[in-house]
Amino acid sequence: MLRFIFLASFVILFLILSTPLMLAEWIIGKFNMDLKNRSSLAIVNWAFRRCLAIAGTKITYLGEDRIPLDTPVLYVGNHRSYFDIVMTYVRVPRPTGYIAKKEMLRYPLLVTWMKNLHCLFLDRTDLKEGMKTVLAAIEKMKSGISICVFPEGTRNKTPDTFLPFHAGSLKIAEKARCPIVPMAIVNAGDIFEDHLPRIKKTSVIIEYGEPILPHELDREQKKNLNDLVVNEIKRMYFKNKELLPPPRK
Fold first, then answer.
1. I need a surface site. Which of 62, 86, 95, 105 has the fewest CB within 10 A?
2. Domain-located, residue 163
């Protein structure tokens, strides 16, 4: 429980004490949006790295050399933990927005930082509003911002399984003519979700797959794009699961 208490205390203190930084970032954004993007990325990366250190999470990153650096990308990954966002965000090479559920809007200080980081908020119950979020994500990618999405739609509570992926999220990359980077996150649930409310020191493996360029696929491949992405994530997931050290007793 100590790790949970320390982590919760750090997050609350960061959100409160960073309020002046939020104002500074707002002012910077009025004159230099690129500087705001880079400074917000640096600030939140620092906070997320502290969170991972407090949690005692050891992460092995594989395939980062496959991520294109000259273009925004659509990261597509499986989703087991709140820590998925923390663990992946600290490695993004450019400003990256995450598509989050609209319920996150109820947390005022947190949501300010999320908006600074180009996050978008999806209403999963309203198809029209959901389409607006997709269109906003396309525009962000066209402006040079990467997007990360977890198409299972919610955190999967069953280890080593995958919920159905919502194929509509892949339209973001298709319409923006940007690469899709499959992302397999292994053992994330062992940090927190599998034994609430305890945070456990554990190992996680995250692998980035070869970029998939939707606009370069043939008609049949485009038709089966969702399966292509899901199968690559599953392949990396089960391959890397074998590399994990045995669980601590």
1. 105
2. yes
46 within domain boundaries: no
Q: Are 41 and 135 in contact (CB under 8 A)?
A: no
Rounded distance, CA 58 to CA 47, Å? Answer: 16
Contact 216, 228 (CB under 8 A): no
- Burial class of residue 23 (count of CB atoms within 10 Å of its CB; 0-12, 13-18, 19+): exposed
Look up the pTM and report it: 0.94
Say if residue 202's pLDDT is above 80: yes
Look at the chain and report how many structural domains it folds into.
1
H or E segment to which residue 19 belongs: helix 19-31
Percent of the chain beyond pLDDT 90?
78
The residue type found at 157 is: K
DSSP letters spanning 38-73? HHHHHHHHHHHHHHHHHHT-EEEEE-GGGS-SSS--
- Residue 69: which domain range? 58-241
What does the pLDDT look like over 211-249, one tens digit per residue?
A: 999 988 988 888 899 999 999 999 999 999 998 877 665
CATH code, domain with 185: 3.40.1130.10
Does some domain include residue 159? yes
Would residue 248 count as lying in a domain? Answer: no
